[in-house]
Amino acid sequence: xxxxxHAITLSDITINYANKCIIEQLDLTIKKGxxxxxxxxxxxxxxxxxxxxxxxxxxxxxxxxxxxxxNVHQQASNKVAQLxxxxxQITQSPEGITVKTLVxxxxxxxxxQFGVLRQHDHQKVEQAMQQAKVSDLSDQYxxxxxxxxxxxxxxxxxxxxxxxxxxxxxxxxxxxxxHQFELLNLMVELNRQGKTIVVVMHDxxxxxxxxxxxxxxxxxxxxxxxxxEDVFTSKMLKDVFNFDALVIQDPESHxxxxxxxxxxxxxxxxxx
Amino acid sequence: MRIHPTLFIxxxxxxxxxxxxxxxxxxxxxIPVSEVFNAIASPISEHYFIVNNFRLPRMLISMLVGAxxxxxxxxxxxxxxNPLASPDVLxxxxxxxxxxxxxxxxxxxxxxxxxxxxxxxxGFIATAxxxxxxxxxxxxxxAFALIGIALATIFSAAIDYLLTVNPLEINTSMLxxxxxxxxxxxxxIPLILPWLAxxxxxxxxxxxxxxxxxxxxxxxxxxxxxxxALRVITIIVAISLASAAVSxxxxxxxxxxxxxxxxxxxxxxxxxLLIPATALTGAILVVSADLFARVLMPPIELPAGVLTAFIGxxxxxxxxxxxxxx
Lengths: 272, 326
What we know:
- The complex is a heterodimer of chains A (272) and B (326).
- Chain A is α/β, with parallel strands linked by helices and 272 residues long.
- Chain A is 30% helix and 27% strand.
- Chain A is built from nine helices and twelve strands.
- In chain A, helix 4 crosses helix 5.
- The longest helix of chain A has 16 residues.
- The mean pLDDT of chain A is 89.
- Chain B is mostly helical and 326 residues long.
- At the A-B interface, helix 2 and strand 6 of A face helix 7 and helix 8 of B.
C-alpha cells in the first residue's frame, strides 16, 4: 500500500441498504493532493460511497483506510474528524445562531466537553472564514443569508475543521450558476493549498473541468477511473449514462465536454 | 426577540424567588411576605411549624419537579429534534405513573424508596414501546408525537381503572399521582433531589454535543460525534429525570413541552445556557401553578397539573397548527 500517494484506500467495500445491495466488493484508491470527482447516473451509489468513507454508513464488509493502519471505522470518532471533513448534500442550519458560531462548530473535534474555544481555535475560525470569503458576514444570523452565502459559510465550517481530506456531496446542487462556479473555483483554490478533495458531482462538464481524476460508477461498481481526457468518451457516456452525446473540447479550459445529440423527432406537420 | 442570556437567567432566578416567597406565604393562613423569612428561620415565630413542616417542603418539591420535567423535555426535544416532544406528550410520565400505581396495588406496603426505581422502570418500558411502534416515524415529528399521545392515553386509562377498582388498596395518599404536589413533605425530597444532583451535571456534560447534533446527524458524525451513543445516553438521562419527577408528584403535564420552547425563543439554541434557563423556567411554572391552584378558589385546592394543562394544552394546539413539516 503506497500511503504516500494515496489519501484514501477502500478495499472490498460492500454496502447493503434495506436488504438491497447498493455497493458490491468495491476497491478504490484516492490520490493525495488531487481533486477526485465521483460521477455516475442516479442511484449508482456515489453518495453512498462518500458516506461510507466518512462513517455516515457502516459497510457490511470491507475497510476504509486513511493510512496503512488507520481504518476509519475502527478509530475514535473525533480522531477521524481531525483528518477528514465533509459537507453533506443537505445541511441543517439551526435558527438564531451567527455565522461565526456556526463556523466555530468546525473546531469540535479538537475541543473539550464544553466546547470552549482557545486562542488557537479562534485563529483557525477567522482563517477559515477568510478563505471561504465570509468574514464580513461573521456577526449575521444564518437565517438571513442567501443560498450561495450559506453554502460558503458551511465550507468555512469544513475548513475550520482543518483536515487534509475534504469530502463534498453535490456541493453545487441548490446554487444558481454564478454561485456554482464561485464554489468550484474556491474548491480549486483549497486544492492548491494542499487539500485532497473528493467530490460527488452531477454536472459532467463541470466535473471534467474541475477534477484531476474521474471515478465513474454504475450500479454500485466502479466502471472506470482516470484523467478526464482518457475516460470521458462518447462510448462511456452511452454505456454508463445511456446518454447519446458528442464529446468535444471545452474551448475555455481545454478539458472534454459533452454535447447532447439532437434526438430525431417527427416533424410538427406529421403529428396528427 | 433575543435577550442577553445572563440577564435572562438572572431575571428567572429573581422571578422564581418571588414566586417561592408568595408560595410559602399563601394558604389557609396567610403569612405576609415580610413575615416569611422570619417564619422559616426562627422557631419562636407563630408560623414556624406550618411553614417548615408543610409549605417549605411543598414549595421545594414543586421547584425540583418543575426543573426535572423541563430539563427532560429540553433533552428529548434536542435529541430527537422534535419540537412536539416532551415526556408527557410521549407517554413517558404516564408510563412511569402506571408502574407506580401497579406497585401500590400489588404491594401496598412497599417502602417509599422503591417508588423512584419503579417509576424509572415504567418510564423506560413506555419509551421502549414508543420507539418500537414509531421506529419508522422518527423523521416525522407530528406522527411520532401522535403515537406518544395515544400511548399516554392508554396508560392514563389503565391508571384510572386501577384507581377505581382498588379504592381500598390505594389509599388517598396515592391520589397525588394525578399530578399534584398536595401533601408533599420532607420525606419526598430524597426521592428526587439526588437524581437531579446527578443528572443535572450529566446534562451539562452533554450540552456541547447536543448543540452539534442540531446541525444534523451527518454533520455531527463528520465533526466526530458518536451520534448513536449520544442519543442513547441523552434519552436515558431525560427519562430518568421525568421518572424522578413522577415518583414524587405523578404526571404534571406540559411543563416539559412549554419550558424549553419559552427559553429557546428567548436565548437561542446553545444548550449550555438553555439547561439552567429551562430548569429555572420549569421550576417557575410548577411553583406558580401550585400557588394559583391554591389561591384561586379557596378552600378548594386544584392539582397543579390541572393548571399547567390549562396553559400547556392551548400552546400544544398552537404548535400543532403552526407546524409545517408533517
